[in-house]
Known about the structure:
By secondary structure, the protein is an alpha/beta fold. It is 37% helix and 16% strand. The strands form three sheets. Strands 8, 9, 10, 11, 12 and 13 form a six-stranded mixed β-sheet that branches. A five-stranded parallel β-sheet has the order 5-4-3-6-7. It has a two-stranded antiparallel sheet with strand order 1-2. Helix 3 (62-70) links the parallel strand 3 and strand 4 (77-79). The protein is globular.
Amino acid sequence: MRPPRRATRTAPALLALALLTALGTACAGTETPTNEETRIITDRFGTVEVPADPQRVVALGWQEADTVLALGVQPVGTASFPLSPDGQVPWQTDLIEGEPTRVNTTRAGFDVVDLDLESIAALQPDLIVATTFADLETYHGQLSEIAPVVGPESATYLTIPWQDQARQIGRALGREDATETLIDDVQTHIDEAVARNPELDGVTYTLGIATPVGYKAVNDPDDFSSVILGEFGMTLTDTISALPDTGDGSGSATISPENARQLDADILLLSFFAVGGSQQALSDPVFTSIPAVADGRYVDVDAASLTALRNASPLSIDYTIGELVEGQIAPNVAAHN
């Protein structure tokens, strides 16, 4: 068994440092300025006039905060990560300074909450970036009364490539050249990781989430997890791909507990949000009868790794490579070949 090869955990910080020259020479891009101090950005809601050099940025999504940080801007407010005590995703640790205000934008899978508009207004932002905020349509008018709001370019934001999301944010920050440098650097990191792990090419996988009533298995080829793992030549199984989508926007299919064997693949990636969920599953004879589980071709994916995998950004991709792909998947595949 070859030892696991892990991408350095400081890679996001190194990527950001590599952008310093580009940041100093970033041009105004193709957006039409209204005057020397503002620019016009287009999103799914129309056009919005934003500061040419915003200084107090609120990011209403983890991916937005990742790109803002990677481009050298410290947000004054960021979306809170509900599965972390400090509300921060781990891949931002090397870049974030101080303690920005955490804004609760919780929605899918957790208790639905009202957006705290008063807290956002108290931050006195000059720009709100909300390219992945699920409830933007509901709150767009109220947020726009606080500061200019930049949303996604299309309503189907869940399948907008991470590169295009980064470019939208880069335009809003006036850092287009730096964004292209960032995208190129991330792609280089991906390509290098692919070259280090040729054994993953052709490996089938199932990415699932255990729920109280069964399992959800990702089967959307445009899901960020499918795209990133696809870079390594990994593919969803025919069984999972053929299952009907739930239609709830999660890009997944539902599998009942008695049909758990449908989860089988060359490697099974399964996440449990419930405390002790993994141990409980391993006491279930149906679950342990899945060939991948019985053979040890099974990875218990923690919540942070699942979030990084399914919410691709310039920072989370490096985390996915280091912690999940090279930290767990590649060693498991090598051990069973």
